[in-house]
Amino acid sequence: MDQIKIGRFIAECRKKKGLTQMQLAEMLNITDRAVSKWETGRTMPDSSIMIELCDILEISVNELLCGEVIAMDNYKEELENNLLEMVKQKEAADRTLLALEWVIGILSCVVIFVPVFIGALLPMEDWMRLVVVFSGFIPGIIGFLYAVKIEQVAGYYECGHCKHTYVPTYRSVSFAQHRGRTRYMRCPKCNKKSWQKKVLSKNK
């Protein structure tokens, strides 16, 4: 999707309705700075207010994502193109998140083990050694928990039996046996347990 084109389209539709950026922002309970960012192509409207924005501007969501008014004979084709583009963008974002998971996991290991090595190698009183050793545990554990959260929400898990793809609960991911990103969980569709691998695309 072309954010610059979409931004210009929002500005054009807003002006046709005789609204200022401030007036549109007040109708959506946001700041006029957010509207300005849309219209300059720096950001996109949040999905939570996209329908309300389209209602105010009297356009469809599909037209908003295309950045232009769509003729009825091209409507279905443009809708399919927009849906495909959104899927591609989600997959790219999920790849980035999963790469970030590795970075956070490695940093969490460093945060935990560096104080352990310092406490073991440097001469100090016992109480100080305990403080140093445990100083890395809390931030390290928080880092690991955040990494698991990323793994849960980025992409999908694929059932080893029925091939159903889904996003499991954080609890399921946290307590499941795992080999890397493959986890032993119960599928919500077939209700069978299996080793389920992480995938980026959702099966139909």
Can you walk me through this structure?
By secondary structure, the protein is an alpha+beta fold. It has two domains: 68 residues, lambda repressor-like DNA-binding domains (434 Repressor (Amino-terminal Domain)); 107 residues, no CATH class. 62% of the residues lie in helices and 10% in strands. It has a five-stranded antiparallel β-sheet with strand order 2-1-5-4-3. The radius of gyration is 24 Å and the shape is flat. The protein starts with a helix and ends in a 5-residue tail after the last strand. 16% of the residues are buried. The model has no long low-confidence stretch (mean pLDDT 87).
How many domains, in number, for the residues?
Answer: 2
Our count of helices gives 9
- As a percent range, the share of strand residues is 5-15%
Query: What is the mean pLDDT?
Result: 87
Q: What kind of sheet is the major sheet?
A: 5 strands, antiparallel
Q: Helix coverage percent of residues? A: 55-70%
Distance between the termini: 23 Å
Shape, please?
A: flat
Number of strands: 5
The rounded Rg comes to: 24 Å
What class, by secondary structure content?
alpha+beta
Low-confidence stretches: none
**Strand sequence of the main sheet, in spatial order?**
2-1-5-4-3
